[in-house]
What does this fold into?
Amino acid sequence: MRKIAVKLGWLFTGLAMGSPLLLQAQQPQRPNIILILSDDMGYSDLGCYGGEIKTPNLDALAKGGLRYTHFYNVGHCCPSRAALLTGLYPQQTGLGWMVDTKFEQPGYTDELNNHCVTVAEVLQKAGYATYMAGKWHLAHNMRDDGPKYNWPLQRGLEKFYGIITGAGNFYDPATLCRNNTLITPYTDSLYHPKDFYFTDAISDNAVAFVKEHQSPKPFFLYLAYTAAHWPMQAPEAAIAKYKGHYAAGWDKLRAERLKREKQLGMINANAVLSPLDTHSWEEEPDKAAMERRMETYAAMVTIMDEGIGRLVAELKKEGKFENTIILFLQDNGGNAEGVGFGGPNGETRPVAKDTAAVKRLAKTDVQYSVISPMTRDGQMVRMGKQVMAGPADTYLAYLKPWANLSNTPFLKYKNFTYEGGIATPLIIHWPAGIKAKGATRQQVGHEVDILPTLVALAGATYPQQVQQNSITPVSGVSLVPTFAGRQLPERAIYWEHQANRAMRLGKWKIVSGGIMNGPYGKWKTYTSLPWQLFDLEKDPAELQDLSGAYPDVVKKMVAMWEKWAQETNVYPMPWKEEKRPAAANYISTPWEYPNF
It folds into this structure.
């Protein structure tokens, strides 16, 4: 067996995936573990990372713990969650793309394969109680009458409240589920607030799990918010608190965020803004509607933060706060997708193509539609550039200009392997085990490091085999030594998603953009752009391509990437490579998304 043994007392010792661990701590008990993941947020959105959005509870956790400045995710929903929960690169789990399509290649199925285990499965075997509230998005089947072997309870969770799919109306989320049964906000016997809002529902159920946990066992809680993924929806009172906060526009606010990022030590002092990847605020014709989108986005983030505050308060009330390790990170960068734009001209219109064919759901009918065309009270859901975000009868994204703000100062967005797509905050707070308060860690890390870190802290055993299935050894390493300020050995970190490729080794990073040819999800071919080379110590915004000056570095790193791709099921890919002239702008335009 591949074992991570952690003896908890005044000294942590052990073996973390073959690497020595050493950590001083104060508590003899194994810690409770809370892993929090937000959705479609940029590196600079949190207050403690330079944003103007009000996140006092996450800021307090950062002040009492650690902030990592060079941490990475995978860049898109399903693959990112697969990496986070298994300690493997996505293609090793079978989820190299999304749960939408089952390809024939081993790296690109539509759900987790049998050669990986989730952190919940490992911790459950080690004697932890395991709970989850939020977004799962790791199984192809999302219906009650289909197979559920990859639903949360079959992957190590004892209690689950949330959604099986990846997004939905915040007032009526698709595939809402308790344990193994799909429900609606009206049929759930355990949770029925006066006004249902999904972010609050996630928080409230997480608080309930902690309150109900009266066992001597430690617990693991995975809290996977859908904030701030589209649609931009929030209660009016929450949005009103941000009225006027974004009237200055994205260009000025990006500069202000960069200044605060430098003051907080979240970005190198020599960093400069990437070029504005949109028109200026002065040129924006629909200022009121665009302000409203960002006001709503900010409200969504603050509501999530308030829920985290309620969870912290419950931990303190139960006397569990000191020995609970809380981790917060994001699944990808800010999202430039054009969902709800309203076609090439942004016209205001119903989501439904045929409004006469839309049927109103009864309160007992399960909501399966991620983009529901009608609310349960009979209102047609609207989209369009000039629609005001917030209510249940709207379905909008916050669009590329605001995503450019979220990802300050980086290039690109969700799906891409430039820093704007893959850089994430990481906050780790643990009073009983981390002495440093408010410190930053420059250590480079990746989502694949979370499982080995938590398994090490739990004194658990990572298996080589489950039933008759061999389990792939983890790709990450434990971050525990960094808690005490020690450096991990230098290593390479890799990415591939939708033909976007990258690798980081020390200060160097190579990136090759990918163009998927055709409408979203219908691709048959892709086009790779040339490899670029960046020195992230001097150029964190990836503005100076040094591939011509250091061809030997590029050659070495590309060879390493190709070897990794062969070993981790990146190859064979589901799409064939096609040589085409490089497009000037290879972000999907809003009207290329299906039904929009």
Observations:
- Residues 2-489 form a domain with the Alkaline Phosphatase, subunit A fold (CATH 3.40.720.10).
- The two ends are 50 Å apart (CA to CA).
